[in-house]
Amino acid sequence: MSFTKLTGQETAVRLLKDDLDSGRIHHAYLFTGIKGVGKRTLALDFARALFCQRQDGEACGTCLSCRKIEHSNHPDLSIINITEGDSIKIEQIRELQRGLAFRPYEGKWKLYIIEDADRMTPEAANSLLKTLEEPPHYGVIILLAREAETLLPTIVSRCHLIQLNPLSVENIEKILLEAGYEDSEKIKLAAALAGGSPGEAKRLIEDEDFFTEREKLYEFLYNLPELTEVDVFQFVDELLTLLRNKEAFPFFNLILNWYRDIILYRMDSHADLVNSDYIALYSKISEKYSVEELISIIELVNNIKRYIDSNVKEDLALQVMFLKIRTKRVK
Fold this sequence. Notes:
The chain has helices at residues 10-22, 39-51, 64-70, 90-100, 122-133, 153-156, 169-178, 184-193, 198-206, 210-223, 229-245, 251-266, 279-285, 291-309, 314-326, and strands at 28-32, 77-80, 110-114, 139-145, 160-163. It is of the alpha/beta class. The chain folds into 2 domains: 3-163, Rossmann fold (3-Layer(aba) Sandwich); 207-326, Zinc Finger, Delta Prime, domain 3 (Up-down Bundle). Helix 1 runs parallel beside helix 2 and helix 10 (210-223) packs across helix 12.
């Protein structure tokens, strides 16, 4: 049992192993990276190595401490995550503080992992800051967040930053194969569509409806230049129904990949296509758009995504987006 099982994060692993080997354990760490890239996995690997009773700098995987972490019942390890609403509340941080007031039960350290730390309420973040300013000598807190910039600068300044990078398509394919997935075509597509996140790739493969929904979306985009306003409004209604039933459907990423692929096809960069199974359609549609129009469409999609993230009404924003895309074709 070791850190080496975390594919593609050699720098992050080396930094943590250096701390373990030297015995200079920081009282606060901040692991950053996109969702599904391995932040939680790395934090638990670090916990195993920190608590292991048999080895230094690595986890044996078989001692009592390693087994307790594996089964989520180690008394000196706590994981804090969102349990109500969409944020980590101040009471959860107060519970952490109450726990840190007591010394470890079984070892040298007491470890807390805070998932989605960038979604703490302001009150929770300010309360945590007080703990980070004066932590007990046995306390270790690991924050997991997408980006350091989403946290208070005063919190970030008190943490040892560990950046986890998006993985290459090749590394994600390797992870999926090692995990036992067998459909080579789905593995290739999921790895390309996952945006560097092996967790997202696994989710896509296990979603039985994803590839069918993707096909419907791309059929709509292919035919969009010839569709009527009524057709567009009807599809937006269907898309909103899908999104309400399946919030994780990555339709913006799929749309962006579609138009980026058309640009790559026009540039003869076929090996870089994300949706390589749609190359036949790209050959038919690529001449309907100029490169300038495609770049403009990508900018439009990104802008609409930002508007929706800012709580602009979804149906109106999507209708405007698709109608504008429809008019950017070569006459």
